[in-house]
Amino acid sequence: MSDLRLVVFDVDGTLIDSQDFIVAAMTRAFGQMGLTVPPRAEILSIVGLSLPEAIARLAPTLDADAVAGGVAIYRESFFALRAESGGEGVVPMYPGARAALDRLAARDEVLLGVATGKARRGVVHFVESHGLHGMFQTTQTADDHPSKPHPSMLLAALGETGVAAGQAVMIGDTSFDIQMGRAAGFRTIGVAWGYHPVADLHAAGADRVIDTFDALDAALLEIWSM
């Protein structure tokens, strides 16, 4: 049996604090669609879902064609804001995130991955902007998979890395991340600084919830010792 271990991270709300950028893009998109802009908390509650699922939840009266149109408008808004502001290049990583990634990447038995509702283009921009080239051995995005919490992203990550599900951990800030991890047979760690309340992470079945990245190494050790 392989001794390799896999740690997969969500991006928005887990590694980077992109909430203002996401809210601004959704606000602009809903304005262009002539719809009432949802409250900020409601917008953040859908972060992590694929865009069609997110738009459908935020505007449940839209039919399928209107949802598809909303997705296209959101993407245009997002790209415009990225061009205006620098996008993920100016969105900060959370305190301790880079150091935690560097510590894990230095361990020969640990492989790192990403599973995110972002499009691949956004992940590439995130990686390039923050100098993370070569950090992730597997990158799963909304372009190629059903929306979270479907386990497709994580099952693909296992297939690409050859790591057993029992040796893999999903780390994220939303109940969607935790549900996805559990559905794929991963252990799960929720982070308290993201976009879903800590109570939701516990309710979704998180094995651990950490308050800072400094607590990640100990949480992983506990999980892998069980």
Characterise this structure:
This protein is of the alpha/beta class. The chain folds into 2 domains: about 5-15 and about 90-225, HAD superfamily/HAD-like (Rossmann fold, 3-Layer(aba) Sandwich), CATH 3.40.50; about 20-90, Orthogonal Bundle (DNA polymerase, domain 1), CATH 1.10.150. It is about 45% helix and about 10% strand. The protein is built from 10 helices and 6 strands, in the order βαααααβαβαβαβαβα. It has helices at about 20-35, 40-45, 50-60, 65-85, 95-105, 120-130, 150-160, 175-185, 200-205, 215-225; strands at about 5-10, 110-115, 140, 170, 185-190, 210. A 6-stranded parallel β-sheet has the order 3-2-1-4-5-6, sandwiched between helices. Helix 1 (about 20-35) crosses helix 4, helix 3 (about 50-60) packs across helix 4 (about 65-85) and helix 8 (about 175-185) packs parallel to helix 9 (about 200-205). The protein is globular. About 45% of the residues are buried. The mean pLDDT is about 95.
What attributes does this structure have?
6-stranded parallel beta sheet, DNA polymerase, domain 1, 12% strand, 10 helices, 226 residues
Helicity level: 40-55%
Tell me which oligomeric state these chains represent: single chain
Mean pLDDT: 93
Architecture per CATH nomenclature, i.e. the level-2 architecture of the largest domain: 3-Layer(aba) Sandwich
Major sheet: size, sense and barrel closure? Answer: 6 strands, parallel
Low-confidence spans? none
Examine the coordinates and then state which fold CATH places here, giving the name of the CATH topology of the largest domain.
Answer: Rossmann fold
The separation of the N and C termini measures 17 Å
Within the largest sheet, what's the order of strands?
Answer: 3-2-1-4-5-6
Number of helices: 10
Query: From N to C, what is the helix and strand string?
Result: EHHHHHEHEHEHEHEH
Provide the gyration radius in Å. 17 Å
Shape: globular
Number of domains: 2
Global structural class: alpha/beta
> Using DSSP, what is the number of strands?
6
β-strand amount: 5-15%
